[in-house]
Amino acid sequence: MVEMNSRKAAIIGCGFVGSASAFALMESHLFSEIVLIDADKNRAEGEALDISHGLPFSKPMQIYAGTYEDISDAAVVIVTAGAGQKPGETRLDLVKKNVAIFKSIIPEIAKYNKDGILLVVANPVDILTYVAKQLSGFPSNRVFGSGTVLDTARLKYLLSEHLGVDSRSIHAFIIGEHGDSEIAAWSSANVSGVPLHKFCEMRGHYNHTRATREIAEGVKNSAYEIIEKKKATYYGIAMSVRRICEAIVRDEKSILPVSSIQNTEEINGVALSMPAIVGKQGVEGTVPIELNAEEKAALKESADTLKAVLHDVLE
Ligand SMILES: NC(=O)c1ccc[n+]([C@@H]2O[C@H](COP(=O)([O-])OP(=O)(O)OC[C@H]3O[C@@H](n4cnc5c(N)ncnc54)[C@H](O)[C@@H]3O)[C@@H](O)[C@H]2O)c1
C-alpha cells in the first residue's frame, strides 16, 4: 500500500489552466511537491522549469514534469487536460472531445493512485466529474469538480463592485451547472448577515430586479467575454483551484460550491454544484441552503439539462 503524501499534488494537463494553477499552487506554499503531466511532454517540462525559476523568490519545493507512476502518492490529482472553449462554443459542445480524453487519462490515474482526491477542472466540468467517478471507481467524496467555485467568485466580485464592499463579506452562491443553466441563489444571499436587498438599499440601489438580472447575466457571460477578448480564461480558475486545494490540504471543512454527484430525492444521478463541506476527505456533505420555489425549479431544470447530456455521452 502506498502512503499518501498530503503535501503532494499532480496536475494532468499543462495548458493555460494547468500551468496557471501550478503557478498559483507554487505561490500558495500548500505543497512541497507538484508533478506536471501533459500529452505534450515538452510543454510540461517547459512549465516546470519556468515556474521553478521563481522558487528563489518563494519557498523551496519540487515541481517537475513526470509520468503517471510519479503520482501514486499525490493527495490531490487535478485534471485540466482537454480542449478549451473556442469563441462561440458552449461548454457542452466540448463534451465529446473531452470525454474521449478522460477515457485515456482517468484509468491511468486510478491504476497508480488509489487513495487521492480527483479534482476535475476540464469542461464541461459537471459531465466530466460524473464520467471521472465512473471511470475511476473512486468513492463519490473523492471525485469532485471545481464546479461553480469560479462563477461564485465572479458573482461576489461583481456584487462587491456594485455595493462598494469587500467581496469576502458577501455570502452568495451560484449553484447548478457550471454553464448556461447555472442559478444565482439570490434568496439566501446576504452581506455579513444582512439580506442582500436590504444591503443594496443601504447603498442607494433600489431596482433589485434589474440589478440582479444584470449581475447574474454578467457572471454567466464572463467566460464568453474573456474568451472573446483573450482566447482563454485561466487566472480566476487557477485561484479557485488554489482555494479548493487549501480547503483539502488544511482540512478546513470550508463550504465551497464544488460539483459533486447529487444524491437527494429531487436530484440524483448527476454531478452539479451545491455548497459542500470540503476537507481532507474531499466532499464531506452538501449543505442544503434555502432556495425559493423559482430557484428550486431552475435547479431541477439545470440537473435535467446535464442528465440529457450524460444520457447522450454514456449510451
Ligand atoms: N472549470 C472551470 O471553471 C474552467 C475554467 C477555465 C477553463 N476550463 C477548462 O479547462 C480545460 C483546459 O483549458 P486550457 O485553456 O488550459 O486548454 P489548453 O488547450 O491550453 O490546455 C489543454 C492541455 O491539455 C493537454 N492534453 C490534451 N490531451 C491530453 C491527454 N490525453 N493527456 C494529458 N494532457 C493532455 C494538451 O496538450 C494541453 O496542454 C478546458 O476544458 C477548459 O474549458 C475550466
Fraction of residues in H or I helices = 40-55%
Average of the residue pLDDT scores: 96
**Cα separation of the termini:** 35 Å
Helical stretch count? 9
What's the story with the biggest beta sheet? 6 strands, parallel
Strand content: 15-25%
Q: Order of SSEs, N→C?
A: EHEHEEHEHEHEEEEEHHHEEEEEH
Low-confidence stretches: none
Provide a descriptive summary of the structure in words.
Its EC number is 1.1.1.27. It contains nine helices and 16 strands. The protein has helices at 16-28, 41-52, 95-112, 125-136, 149-163, 196-202, 208-230, 235-249, 293-314, and strands spanning 5-12, 33-37, 62-65, 74-79, 117-120, 143-145, 170-171, 174-175, 183-184, 190-191, 194-195, 254-256, 259-263, 268-273, 276-279, 282-286. With 315 residues, the chain is of the alpha/beta class. It is globular and about 55 Å long. The structure holds nicotinamide-adenine-dinucleotide. Nicotinamide-adenine-dinucleotide binds at residues 12-18, 37-40, 43, 80-82, 84-85, 98, 101, 104-105, 121-123, 125, 146, 150, 178, 232-234, 237.
